[in-house]
């Protein structure tokens, strides 16, 4: 079983949208690239096969049928390529829209609140540290005064 090294942050919906949109966008891009390559190779091989069959001066009935099949395969491959490229483009576009929507709302509405919360927590921690340092200094001063009072009392 494959485990992700870092869990997807789903503490708010906008962050989830942003990351899910990124995954969809990358998937669409990979799909676009692989489909384009696969169908271009099919189109190219069908074109070469059709060219070879068309060069025959007196084709037999079998060769004419083969040419029809190859031309049909060529046209179908072009149609399929256009369809899958369009679908992968739509998927990529939806991923981009979802990603930008999520990142925009995350950075505009959620992150400022998180930053404000972290700033307040930092200020609180600094005040507590200052209070503890003051108490420590106060305790040292009292101890020093007690030691002085103890020497003068003897």
Using brief descriptors, characterize the structure shown.
single chain; mainly alpha; 154 residues; rod-shaped; 2 helices; 88% helix
Structure description:
With 154 residues, the chain is mainly α. It has one domain (13-153). Helices cover 88% and strands 0% of the residues. It has two helices and no strands. It has helices at residues 13-54, 61-153. The longest helix is centred in the C-terminal third of the chain and has 93 residues, at 61-153. It is rod-shaped, with a radius of gyration of 36 Å. The protein starts with 12 loop residues before the first helix and ends with a helix. The mean pLDDT is 89.
The profile of the biggest β sheet is: none
Order of helices and strands: HH
CA radius of gyration is: 36 Å
Structural class: mainly alpha
Residue-averaged pLDDT = 89
> What's the tally of helices?
2
Return the domain count.
1
Q: Span between N and C termini? A: 77 Å
Helix content: over 70%
Shape: rod-shaped
Taking pLDDT < 50 over at least 5 consecutive residues as the criterion, the unreliable ranges are none
- Strand percentage: under 5%
Oligomer: single chain
The tally of beta strands, per DSSP, is: 0
Describe the structure concisely for a colleague.
By secondary structure, the protein is mostly helical. It is 88% helix and 0% strand. The model has no long low-confidence stretch (mean pLDDT 89).
Chart the SSEs and their pairings.
Elements: H1 13-54, H2 61-153
